């Protein structure tokens, strides 16, 4: 389950030729993304052409009633399980409407517990990236929610995951005994296909990344010299086990 990653920069978006973008979104986004922050996503325009926009990490379902509920629900919709995405209340509408998106990124972070006994029985944050250091795209769902109080339209998104038990790299992440999960990293030749896929085609693309394409290394957060806001934990409770 991914809760933190490094999004592609505007320069990367234009240079990722398989995305087919003429320009990056005009809005800025953070260099490292956590829940509730903005990040670029690529979606299909009404005419089918790819379009980049900035959206909130953590999908806000259209049935959310107010901003307080939106904040609460979206922390449980960072990732969508491919096995249940068609039936979960938060995801079934965008899945049914084929609101498929691409989340361009440079790397993402996962908690590894292999050396927990050496570091105070805590996980160590690992950075996961392509072996060739190229930017990549993760399969995502996107949604648009209208805040009743302000009329603001809030774009948001969720990253799709699949089972990673036994995977040579992602199978090593997360707590011992927990199910292993991994993001769906789409090959560049399928980026355009994903945006216009039907449900059968989309399900067929939800596959594990082949061995060797991804590499990982420890990337612990720096200890601040003075008190600072605490970032989200490396591994929050799995929200997919509940309503979302």
Describe it.
- By secondary structure, the protein is α+β, with helices and mostly antiparallel strands.
- Helices cover 13% and strands 30% of the residues.
- The chain has helices at residues 10-15, 67-74, 92-96, 191-195, 199-205; strands at 5-7, 38-44, 50-57, 79-81, 100-112, 124-130, 136-146, 153-163, 181-183, 185-186, 214-218.
- The longest helix has 8 residues, at 67-74.
- Strands 1, 2, 3, 4, 5, 6, 7, 8, 9, 10 and 11 form an eleven-stranded mixed sheet that branches.
Identify the notable features of this structure and list them briefly.
alpha+beta, 244 residues, globular
Question: Outline of this structure?
Answer:
The protein has helices at residues 10-15, 67-74, 92-96, 191-195, 199-205, and strands at residues 5-7, 38-44, 50-57, 79-81, 100-112, 124-130, 136-146, 153-163, 181-183, 185-186, 214-218. By secondary structure, the chain is an alpha+beta fold. Strands 1, 2, 3, 4, 5, 6, 7, 8, 9, 10 and 11 form an 11-stranded mixed sheet that branches.
């Amino acid at each position: 389950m991914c809760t933190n990653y490094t999004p592609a920069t505007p320069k990367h978006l234009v240079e990722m030729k398989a995305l087919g973008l003429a320009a990056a979104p005009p809005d800025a986004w953070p260099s490292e993304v956590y829940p509730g922050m903005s990040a670029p996503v690529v979606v299909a325009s009404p005419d089918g052409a790819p379009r980049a926009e900035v959206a909130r990490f953590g999908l806000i379902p259209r049935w959310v009633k107010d901003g307080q509920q939106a904040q609460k629900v979206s922390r449980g919709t960072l990732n969508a399980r491919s096995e249940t995405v068609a039936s979960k209340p938060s995801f079934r509408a965008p899945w049914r409407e084929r609101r498929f998106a691409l989340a361009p990124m440079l790397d993402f972070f996962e908690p590894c517990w292999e050396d927990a006994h050496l570091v105070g029985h805590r996980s160590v944050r690992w950075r996961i990236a392509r072996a060739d250091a190229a930017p990549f795209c993760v399969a995502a769902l996107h949604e648009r929610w209208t805040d009743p109080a302000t009329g603001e339209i809030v774009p948001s998104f969720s990253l799709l995951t699949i089972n990673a038990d036994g995977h040579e790299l992602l199978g090593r992440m997360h707590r011992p005994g927990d199910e292993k999960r991994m993001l769906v990293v789409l090959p560049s030749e399928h980026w355009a296909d994903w945006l216009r896929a039907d449900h059968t085609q989309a399900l067929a693309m939800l596959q594990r990344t082949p061995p060797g394409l991804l590499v990982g290394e420890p990337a612990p957060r720096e200890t601040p010299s003075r008190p600072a806001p605490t970032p989200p934990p490396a591994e929050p409770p799995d929200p997919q086990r509940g309503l979302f």
